């Protein structure tokens, strides 16, 4: 697709497993200007598929001058901080794949740097742009499920096994991001247990528990050692229950009019069938790509901005600390950090407005 006169020009860093999907989307949106990778074979494939797109192996040449407006970082997690920092320093808007960084200090620095440079920092929490998740957030916000009580998520598969980060950092950011969006608060305590079976000290399976000041509880089960693919989130409300199953080809979001009613002081289970929710049909990655472009032009503020990514990073950090302590609960209060959005009403209000 030919770019429109006001379409931002995008550089994609990383032409590997996930980077090729970014390349496809920005090409279709007429925004792809350059692809940068150190792997010449990957770049040759991109050149053959997208003739006319500039390719580079040197990041400094990509960031020099005004030829691009935004940088999309789809490289291994260990490189996210360094690449994002360089791009922000060069005055470029940045979309970095999850996680934002591999520690809270680096994440804080990126958010502060982007704010000081006046550029947008966005994190690739892709599922927050999934039509089923957007509809689920509407159901929660409108009160159709009642008061939130409990959330359970499972993200399981066989491979792709990482060597740079463990399963917690590879899979769990998706679920943490959705849970924080639905609850509109930060957990006060986080605990995580897991096991490393393939590589020493790199967990392949983890179970993380989040405890919120409001009384909501959440559990996140992730594994890349599982016989089949499962991507499911169960949300329990005081009135109804909802299940988001992303593996299903249709009816990905189903609401159950089920619960427990008290009749004459006795708890009686109310069991009814599930009703599929009608959801829009669009590709989450394309919607995320469109939002990034719109954030550059100033027409939209992304819900997955740097501050949102930092909240997810803080929960990951607490879970990692708990994992290292064999499941002993960790608080998000580190060096005076606020443990809950409930302690900052204006922050909670802003988060609500973005949904």
Describe the structure.
With 355 residues, this protein is of the alpha/beta class. The protein has two domains: 116 residues, 3-Layer(aba) Sandwich (Rossmann fold); 205 residues, 2-Layer Sandwich (Dihydrodipicolinate Reductase, domain 2), CATH 3.30.360. Helix content is 34%, strand content 27%. The protein is built from ten helices and 16 strands. The strands form three sheets. The chain has an eight-stranded mixed sheet. It has a six-stranded parallel sheet with strand order 3-2-1-4-5-6, sandwiched between helices. The protein has a two-stranded antiparallel sheet with strand order 14-15. A hairpin with a 3-residue loop joins strand 11 and strand 12. Helix 4 runs parallel beside helix 5 and helix 5 runs antiparallel to helix 9. The radius of gyration is 21 Å and the shape is globular. The two termini are 31 Å apart. 41% of the residues are buried. The C terminus is likely disordered.
Query: What is the count of distinct domains?
Result: 2
Return residue spans where pLDDT drops below 50 for at least 5 consecutive residues: 335-355
How many angstroms separate the termini?
31 Å
* Mean pLDDT over the full residue set: 90
By CATH, the superfamily of the largest domain comes out as: Dihydrodipicolinate Reductase, domain 2
> What is the CATH topology classification name of the largest domain?
Dihydrodipicolinate Reductase, domain 2
Using the coordinates above, name the CATH class of the largest domain. Alpha Beta
Q: If you compute it from the alpha carbons, what radius of gyration comes out, rounded to the nearest whole angstrom?
A: 21 Å
Tertiary shape: globular
* Structural class based on helices, strands and sheet pairing: alpha/beta
Number of helices: 10
> How are strands sequenced across the largest beta sheet?
8-9-10-7-11-12-13-16
Q: Which bin fits the share of residues in helices? A: 25-40%
What percentage of the residues does DSSP assign to strands (E)?
25-35%
Number of strands: 16
Sequence of secondary-structure elements: EHEHEHEHEHEHEHEEEEEEEEEHHH
């Amino acid at each position: 697709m030919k770019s429109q006169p006001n379409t931002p020009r995008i550089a994609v860093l990383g032409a590997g497993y996930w980077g090729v999907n970014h390349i496809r989307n920005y090409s279709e949106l007429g925004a792809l200007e350059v692809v940068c990778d150190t792997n010449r074979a990957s770049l040759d494939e991109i050149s053959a598929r997208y003739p006319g797109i500039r390719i580079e192996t040197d990041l400094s040449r990509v960031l020099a001058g005004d030829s691009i407006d935004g940088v999309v970082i789809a490289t291994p997690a260990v490189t996210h901080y360094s690449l994002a920092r360089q791009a922000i320093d060069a005055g470029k808007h940045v979309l970095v794949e999850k996680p934002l960084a591999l520690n809270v200090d680096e994440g804080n620095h990126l958010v502060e740097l982007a704010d000081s440079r006046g550029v947008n920092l966005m994190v690739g929490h892709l599922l927050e742009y999934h039509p089923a998740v957007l509809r689920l957030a509407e159901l929660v916000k409108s009160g159709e499920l009642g008061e939130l009580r409990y959330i359970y998520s499972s993200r399981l598969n066989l491979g792709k096994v990482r060597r740079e980060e463990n399963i917690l950092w590879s899979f769990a950011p998706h679920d943490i991001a959705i849970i924080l969006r639905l609850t509109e608060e930060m957990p006060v305590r986080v605990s995580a247990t897991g096991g490393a079976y393939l590589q020493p000290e790199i967990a392949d399976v983890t179970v993380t528990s989040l405890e919120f000041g409001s009384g909501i509880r959440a559990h996140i089960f992730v594994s890349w050692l599982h016989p089949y693919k499962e991507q499911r989130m169960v949300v329990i409300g005081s009135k109804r229950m909802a299940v988001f199953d992303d593996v299903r080809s249709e009816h990905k979001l189903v609401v159950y009019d089920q619960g427990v009613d008290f009749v004459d002081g006795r708890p009686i289970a109310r069991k009814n069938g599930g009703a599929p929710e009608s959801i829009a049909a669009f590709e989450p990655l394309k919607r995320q790509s469109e939002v990034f472009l719109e954030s550059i032009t100033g027409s939209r503020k992304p819900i997955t901005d740097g501050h949102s990514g930092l909240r997810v990073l803080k929960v990951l950090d607490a879970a990692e600390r708990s994992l290292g302590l064999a499941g002993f609960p960790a608080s998000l209060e580190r060096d005076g950090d606020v443990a809950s959005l409930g302690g900052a009403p204006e922050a909670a209000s802003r988060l609500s407005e973005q949904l």
